[in-house]
Structure formats: structure tokens, C-alpha cells
Design a protein that fits this description.
This protein has 169 residues and is of the alpha+beta class. It contains 3 helices and 10 strands. The protein has one domain: Cyclic Phosphodiesterase, Chain: A (Alpha-Beta Complex), CATH 3.90.1140.10. It binds adenosine-2'-monophosphate.
Length: 169
């Protein structure tokens, strides 16, 4: 099964991010991520066998994440595959990303990315990768838990299902 570790936004922020996705789509075209799918990917794991997925599940449900606040203050784009995102630099998230990947390495996952750009994808296959005319962003995302998420490929894109969440504080 195809898995990743993510932070899921609180509902009020999800709604606000959805409004930004509408704005971005009106300006850039492309495919808008549904509100229910908006997330920050901490670690993309790809295809994982069932036995390893069970280990990950146990690790996540027993885990506590240092709570934090992520300040979202910028638009960004990735040329391929036409991604428009919102995000912001965050030493706390970089630390969380590093500690998650340290543990994943001990599970045998070796695809640790060299570079982590904390972002929430709003559009895919955008026609225009220009965001300088879009409104300024100043949002705060308080996070307390991390999620293990399964991705299903469907005709009109991916559908996500949360399998486990780390402990509540
Ligand atoms: P993206 O939003 O920047 O595209 C589920 O597919 C999540 O994992 C998405 O948020 C996606 O990030 C990320 N993802 C998908 N395929 C990936 C890959 N090959 N390498 C890194 N991240 C990937």
C-alpha cells in the first residue's frame, strides 16, 4: 500500500486553505486539491508491504509529537508537475522531519530527501506558475499530532485515508 506521514490541518484552517486554493486556481488554472485532501507531507514512503505497514502503525499510535505552530507566509511553486503551494520556513518542522526520518531509517526506509520544503499543495498541473499577484498570506497552523495516511489512486486523482494518528497531548 502507498503510505506517507503527514500533518493534517485543523478544520478552520482547512477551510481557509481551500479558499486560497480557489484563488490560486482562478489565477493559475490546474487541478485544485479537495479540502479534505489538504495536508503537509512529512515523509513520503511509497509502496510499503503489509508487515512493515503494521510496524509503522504501531510506531505512530505510540508516538507523541512536540506540539508547535507553523507560520504560513508564502506562496511557492514546483515546476514539475505544476504544483502551486503555500508554506513557510520552520526550524521546528525541520527538526520534526529530521527526527521522523532518523526513525524511518531504522525501519529500513532509505529514500530520505536531501532537502525539505514544508508546503501544502493547493494545485497540480497548474498552467501558470506565477504567484506574485496573489494575496499575502499570514496563517498559523497549530499542530499536535502526526498522521499515517494511505493514498489510493483514482480516476480523478488521489484519495487519502488516515490509518493512524500519534497520541494526543
Ligand atoms: P506533493 O504534495 O508535493 O505532491 C501523497 O502523495 C503526498 O506525498 C503528496 O503530498 C506528495 O507531495 C507526496 N509525494 C508523492 N509522491 C512523492 C515522491 N515521489 N516523492 C516525494 N513526495 C511525494
Amino acid at each position: 500500500m502507498r503510505l506517507f506521514l503527514a500533518l493534517e490541518p485543523p478544520d478552520s484552517l482547512r477551510k481557509r486553505l481551500g479558499e486560497l486554493a480557489d484563488l490560486a486556481q482562478a489565477h493559475c488554472g490546474g487541478r485544485r486539491m479537495p479540502d479534505a485532501s489538504l495536508h503537509l507531507t512529512l515523509a513520503f514512503l511509497g509502496e510499503v508491504e503489509e508487515e512493515r505497514a503494521d510496524e509503522l502503525f504501531q510506531w505512530v499510535v505510540d508516538m507523541t509529537v512536540p506540539p508547535g505552530e507553523w507560520r504560513l507566509d508564502s506562496w511557492g511553486t514546483f515546476r514539475r508537475p505544476g504544483i502551486v503551494w503555500v508554506g513557510g520556513r520552520s526550524p521546528a518542522l525541520e527538526q520534526l522531519h529530521a527526527s521522523v526520518w532518523d526513525k524511518l531509517a531504522s525501519f529500513g526506509f532509505s529514500d530520505r530527501p536531501g532537502h525539505f520544503v514544508p508546503h501544502i499543495t493547493l494545485l497540480r498541473r497548474a498552467r501558470r506558475l506565477e504567484t506574485q499577484d496573489l494575496s499575502e498570506i499570514d496563517l498559523t497552523w497549530p499542530y499536535r499530532r502526526l498522521s499515517l495516511v494511505r493514498s489510493f489512486t483514482e480516476n480523478d486523482g488521489a484519495r487519502y485515508e488516515t490509518l493512524a494518528r500519534s497520541r494526543n497531548h
